[in-house]
Amino acid sequence: MNIDQARRWLAIYFLLVTVITGGFLLLFNGTTVLPLSADDASACFQIIIPVLVGQVTVIFQWIAVANKDDPTGKLESPVPTWAIRLPALMAILIVVVATVVLAYANRPGVNWTVSPTTFKSAVTFAVTILNASTVFLVARFFPSSNK
Amino acid sequence: MPTVIESRFLQTLALCLCAVSSLPVHGQGESSPHPEDKSRGVASPAVDAHKLVGIPFVSPGEPETREQIVEQIKNSILHRLPELTGYPKDFDSLKQHKAVALRYRGADINPFVPYLYQHKYIYPIVDYWGGEWDADSLEEAKAEALKQCGVGGGSCVLFLEDESVLVSDKMVSDYIGARDKFVSEQVAKLKAADMVVLVQRAAKLSVSASLPSADQFSPPSNKPLEVGYPDWQQDYASACQDRIFYALLPLGTQDAEETQNNLSRVNQTGIYGAYDRRVSTPDYATEDFTTPDKDHLTEHMARFTRRYEFTSDAVSAKRVTLPENLRDVLAGQVIKEIWIEGSVRITHDNLPLIFDQYVAPVALRTDRGLYLGVQVKMPSEGFGDCYVGKPFSGKVLELAGAVSKPDYAKKALSTLLSSIQSTFSAEPIAADLIVTETFGPGEFGMNREHKPSYLLGAPYYESSTYTIETWAAEEDNPFGSLYGRESFKGARSDHLQRADQIYFFLKVSHVHTRAVHKNDTYSDPSIVEIEKIDDGVNKATTRALTSACSSLKGTFDGAMCKINQPF
After folding, report:
1. Domain limits at A18?
2. Which runs of consecutive H residues, i.e. helices, occur in A28-115?
3. DSSP string, B456-513
4. Domain-located, residue A147
5. Cis peptide before B459 (omega within 30 of 0)
6. What pLDDT was estimated at residue B490?
7. How many degrees, rounded to 5, is the angle at CA B432 between CA B429 and CA B436?
8. Does B518 contact A106 at a Cβ distance shorter than 8 Å?
C-alpha cells in the first residue's frame, strides 16, 4: 500500500463512517433496528460523532490544499497496512455488532441482558480504539500545511 | 317506610350522634398519603410556628376592609344555600321578591374548614324568613325588609334584586369578633400542633425504608399536580381532615446545603415508607386509620418524591394547583421548581397500582427563594362535625325494577368483572391477572410486566398495572359512603336489600412505565404517549361494558347500561 492508497482508504473510511453512523443514530433511534430512547441515541451521538468529524476535518483540510502532482504519494507507506486498516475496521465492527445484538436482545423471548447502557459502552470502546490508533495515523498522513 | 325528609332527619341525627361520639377528633382521614409520623417511627423535627407562612387562620396580608368582609358574608350565604334545607336554593329565587331579608343569630367559624380568607369558611348562622311581601319596586321591597328586620336592620342580611347586599354594622362586628376569637384560640392550639418538615421526614424514611423498584414512575404528567391535604373531593376523606394542612417555611441560607442534599437524594429514591391504610374512615376519629384492623379492608401504600421544573408560571398554566392558604401566600411569585411527595397504592411485590390524587409540597422554589413544606396537624377541636358523604362516580350499571335485588346484583357484578378481565387480557392491553395479591370485594388487578407494548407499538416495552374497582350503592351519594366505604365494595346484600334501584360504579386505574429497549430503565411515558394509552384503556373499558351489557340483556348508551329484566 502506498501513501496515496492509505490516504484514500482513510478518507473514504472516515467520511462514510461519519455520515452513516450519524445518520443512523439520528434517524433510526426508537425503531426496531435501533431500540434506543432519544436521550440514549443523543448520548451515543455525542460520544462518537465529534471524534469522527474531527478526523474528517483534518482529512479535508489536507485535501483542500493538496497538490495533485505530489510525488510523495507514490511512495510506499511507512505504516504497515494492517495498522491502517485493522483498528478502523475493528472499531466499526464493534459498533455494528453492538447494534445487531441490541436489536436482537430486544426481541420478545430473547433473554440476553444487553441493554442501551451496554451499547453506549461499546460505542465508547470503539471511540477509544480509534483515539488510541488511527487518529495518530490521520495526523501523519494528512499533515497540516504549516508542518 | 320513612319519607325522604324523615330519612334525612334520621341520617342527620345519626351524623350528630356519630360526631358527638368522636371525641376527641383527630384531623385525619382515610386517604391521607402522609400518615401519622409516630406510627412510622420517625420523630417530628421541631419547627418554630412563628416562622411558618400559609397557616390558614393567619391572614396572609393586610386586614380586610368592611366591603371585603361584606362580600365574603354574601358569598358564604349564597355558597351554602343549595346545601341547607329550608332556604331558597339559588339567588334567582331570592331575587324574585326584589329584596329578601335573612335573619341571623350570630357568627361562627367552621373549624373543620379553617381557611378563613375565603367565603365558604365564614359561617353566619342565618334563618331564612323574608321575601313574602308583595313589593312593586326595589325601594319598596327594601323598606319593607328593613321594617321586618327591626330598627336599622340590626339582625338581618338583605339581598336586593340588583345582587347587592346590605349587612348591618352589628353583623360585621359580630363576625369580626367571632373570627378574632377563633384565630386566638387556634394560635394558642398551634403550640401543641404536630409539625413535620416533609423533606426531613422523606430523607429519613427513604434511607430506612426504601423499597426495591427498578421502574421510575410519577403522577401522570398530563394532569396538574394537585398540592394539598386530601379533602372532600377525594375518594375517602372527611372535612375533619382539614385539621391537617400544609404551611411553608421560608428557608434561611444556613440550611441550604443540607436541604439540597436531602432534596436530591429523595428525588432519586424509588418508593419508600410502605404503610397500610384502612379503606373506610374510622367511625371514631380517635382511631388511627393507618393502623391495620383485622376487621377492615386495608390498602398497601408507599411514598415517592419527585421534582418538577417549570419555565413559566406553573399555577397560571394549571400545571400545579395549590390550596387556598398556599395560593394566597405565593400570590405574585413564580414557582420555578417543586418537589412533591406522593403516595401510591402498591402490591406487596411493590407494583404500583393507583396514585393518590393529592400530593404534599416537600419544597418549592419561587423567584423569591426556597420554601420547605411543613405538615401541620392541629390538636383536636373536642367535638365533631364531619362530613361523612362522598359521591361515587363512574356509574356504569343500573339495575331497576325486578332485578334490583342482591342476587341479581351479585350476578351482574360478576359478569361485569369477567367481561373486563376478558377484554383486558386481549390485545391491545394483553395484561395478566395479578394472582399474588389479595384484592377487596369487587376489585382485581392485572399487569403486563416488561413485555412489548401493543398500546404504544414497537419497539416499546411496557411495565403496566391495571386496577379495577367497583362499588354498589342505591344512590350516587349514599349516607355513610365515606365512613363505610368498604361496605359498598362488591355487592353486599345487607346494603342492597331495600334498594329501589342498584347502581354499580366503576373505576379503572392504570400505571404505565415504558422503555424503548426491554432491558432499559422503565420510565414515565410522554404526554402524547399517555394520551395514546388512556385512549386504548378507555376503548377497552367501553368494549368490556358493551359486552357485559349485552350478556345482562341491558341497554347501553355508551356510558351506562340499564337493566330492568331478568338475565
Report:
1. 3-141
2. 38-65, 81-105
3. T-TT-EEEEEEEEEEEEESSSS-TTTTTTGGGGBS--HHHHTT-SEEEEEEEEEEEEE
4. no
5. yes
6. 87
7. 145
8. yes
A113-136 average pLDDT score: 95
- Residue A126: pLDDT above 50? yes
Could A115 and B458 be called an inter-chain contact, meaning their C-beta atoms sit closer than 8 Å?
no
Q: A42 in contact with B at a CB cutoff of 8 Å?
A: no
Look at residue B179 in the predicted model and tell me its pLDDT.
Answer: 81
pLDDT > 80? residue B148? no
E runs forming strands in B216-264 = 225-227, 244-250
Mutating which of A28, A29, A106 best tests the B interface, going by the most B Cβ atoms within 10 A? A106
| Cβ neighbours of B524 in A, within 8 Å | none
Partners of B528 on chain A (C-beta within 8 Å) are: none
Pull the grid cell for residue B559: 356510558
Residue A15 domain-assigned?
A: yes
Cβ of A105 within 8 Å of Cβ of B517? The answer is yes
Q: How many CB pairs under 8 A join A and B?
A: 40
> Smallest Cβ distance to A37: which of B451, B458, B516?
B516
Pick from B516, B508, B557, B514: nearest CA to B534: B508
Cell 447502557 -> residue:
A117
Do B174 and B123 contact (CB within 8 A), yes or no?
Answer: no
pLDDT band at A20 (very low <50, low <70, confident <90, very high): very high
* Distance (Å, whole) CA B359 – CA B220: 12
B458–A37 C-beta distance less than 8 A:
no
What mean pLDDT comes out for the span B24-42? 36
Give Cα B565 distance to the centre of its chain.
37
Q: What SS3 string covers B524-553?
A: CCCHHHHHHHHHHHHHHHHHHHHHHHHHCC
- Rounded to a whole number of angstroms, the distance from the CA of B538 to the nearest CA of chain A is 26
Most confident segment among A14-18, B154-158, B555-559: A14-18
Q: Which of A86, A103, A93 is nearest to A123 (CA)?
A: A93
Give the Cα separation of B72 and B16 in Å (integer): 28
State yes or no: pLDDT of B67 exceeds 50. yes
End-to-end alpha carbon distance in chain A: 24
- Do the domain assignments include residue A50? yes
Cβ neighbours, 10 Å, residue B28:
26
Nearest partner of B189 among B4, B361, B56, judged by Cα: B56
Number of domains in chain A: 1
Instruction: Tell me whether A31 touches chain B (CB under 8 Å).
Output: yes
Q: Is B224 strand, coil or helix?
A: coil
Q: Which residues contact B202 (CB under 8 A, 6 or more apart)?
A: B262, B266, B272, B273, B303, B305, B341, B362
Residue B465 scores a pLDDT above 50: yes
Mean pLDDT value of segment B84-102: 61
Closest residue by Cα to residue B564 from B431, B402, B444, B416? B402
Task: Give chain B's largest Cα–Cα span.
Answer: 81
User: Element (H or E) spanning B556, and its range?
Assistant: strand B555-556
Q: Does the residue A62 lie in any domain?
A: yes
Asked if residue B326 has pLDDT above 60, the reply is: yes
Cβ atoms B343, B303 nearer than 8 A: yes
Neighbour-count burial of B457, counting CB atoms closer than 10 A to its CB (0-12 exposed, 13-18 middle, 19+ buried): exposed
0.90 surpassed by pTM: no
Q: Can you tell me the distance from the alpha carbon of A139 to that of B119, in angstroms, rounded to the nearest whole number?
A: 78
Burial of B523 (0-12, 13-18, 19+ CB in 10 A): middle
Q: If you search the block for the grid coordinates 335573619, which residue do you land on?
A: B103
User: Does the CB of A121 have a partner CB in chain B at under 8 Å?
Assistant: no
Q: Are the C-beta atoms of residues B378 and B196 closer than 8 Å to each other? A: no
**Is residue A113 less than 8 Å (CB to CB) from chain B?**
yes
pLDDT in tens, A60-107: 999 998 887 778 888 999 999 999 999 999 999 999 999 999 999 999
